[in-house]
Amino acid sequence: MKLPSLPFIGRSARGPVLAGYHVPVRFRAGTILGVLAYTGILIVYGVALTYFGPSVLMPLTAPLAILALVVIWALPDSARPPTRWLNALVFAFLVALLVWPDYLALALPGTPWITALRLTGVPLAVFLFICLSVSRAFRARLFEIVGATRITTGLVVGFAAIATLSVALSNDPATSLNKLVVAYLYWIIIFFASAWVFSKPGNVRKLAWIVWLFVLITSVIGLQEWRLQSVPWAGHIPSFLRIEDPVVQHILSAKSRSTTGIYRVQSKFTTPLGFAEFLALATPFIIFFFVFARNWLLKGAAVATLVLIFISISRTDSRLGAAGFFMSFMLFLAAWAALRWWRERTSLFGPALTLAYPAVFAAFIASTFLIGRMRAMVWGTKAQSFSSQAREAQVERGLPLIWSEPWGRGIGRGALELGYRNLAGGLTIDSYFLLIGLEFGVIGFLVYFGIFLSSASYGARNLFNYRTSEQLLLIPLMISVTNFVIIKTVFAQQENHPLLFMFLGAITALCWQIRKAQQQDGIPG
Question: pTM value?
Answer without folding.
Answer: 0.88
